[in-house]
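Sequence in, structure out.
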Amino acid sequence: MSDNTQDLIAQLRAIVGDAGLVTDADAQAPYLKDWLGKWQGRVTVVVRPADTAQTAEVVRLCHITHTPIVAQGGNTGMSGGGTPDDSGAQVILSTTRMNRIREVDPLNNTMTVDAGVILANAQQAAREADRYFPLSLGAEGSCTVGGNLATNAGGIAVLRFGNMRELALGLEVVLPDGRIWNGLRGLRKDNTGYDLRDLFIGSEGTLGVITGAVLKLFAQPHARATAWVGADTLEQLVELLARTRARCGERLVAFEMMSAASLALVLQHVADTRAPLAQPAAFNALIELADTEDGGLQAMLEDVLGQALEDGLVNDAMFCASQAQSAALWKLREGISQAQVRAGKVVKHDIALPISSLAAFTQAADAAIAGEDIPAEIINFGHLGDGNLHFNVMIPLSSTYEEVKHATAVFNRLVHDMVARMNGSISAEHGVGQLRRDELRHYKQPLEMELMLRIKQAFDPNLIMNPGKLL
């Protein structure tokens, strides 16, 4: 270890104390590898500030010493955005010690939290005030609010409540030179210039470190109705979505799709799961309504789906009679990522398209991938209600590094070219990170890239914030 590195660690220790430093190699290991196991990095120190003031001092020191910073929350990202490189020159700044619920304001329907608060804990704090924070995703027991903001996370309730950009009213951010921007305003109207908040949401730690947020809360839903349906085509499910929206309005909070291959994968690799329908369906939808009071939700859903069955729009339907049955269906949907990790090597695509284009895209992409001389199985699932598909291509677990690299290049070009032609996005909710960084350059308009680079230069002229990610 060089004298400069030892001096940096000593100065960091003076800021955060022994409890705020991780220098032991074994203790560092969970911070150095992403959840999917695709990226592995190396650092000499992980620093864990206890609050915003310590974070500012850490960032100021890194600014002065030109030390690159990788901000990290729960390390549950899907695109390698929170993983350091292998140079050993970077510092991981973990927000996990910043875990306070600062304030819950039921009258204003807001909650102010530290960035390191685990999402499930934020949800629980809202419930304790008889309020509802709707962001929900598979990693909610370990991901953090700051990470959700940095990637503009979506999840299963975007259809009704929006993604994190819609769920955050204000932010607190430590800028790359160590100054603190306090934008923690719980206002729904603030027309006083550029919206700085939206610059930081989705910026993946490249413009600063989010340390706090004011989140929107909603009335706690006390009634839900859940059903699973099977259909022959994706077009049928898109039509069913339109009918359900027209009949149920804002009571429709989730409309999730799983292809037959996706469901089969979960049934094979996730314990305590079973098929909801007697006969397999080519495409499945998990539909949920919610409201503050019952108001006949179950009857409403049964009416919509009963008519769809009569019209031949769906083949079969299962209605949940208990919370346990509903939880079992959601376990199928949320178990796909776990099943994919166990089953094979996956070329992941997190794409967004106009809902009206989803069926045409799926048909064209299925055919194009089948035409390639690469063993592959398409695992197509996602948030049909907001046009976000996880159109993943699984190749054999035995594939070599070179085979994975080749398949990734081929399938990315096929899928992303089609997405671009249909005016879609190659990154919907998982972020760009390392996974899609080079793809972004290929598909973003040159002017868009130029403007983003100018913003990066203005905020971070020393280029120390999460280098090698996003841009």
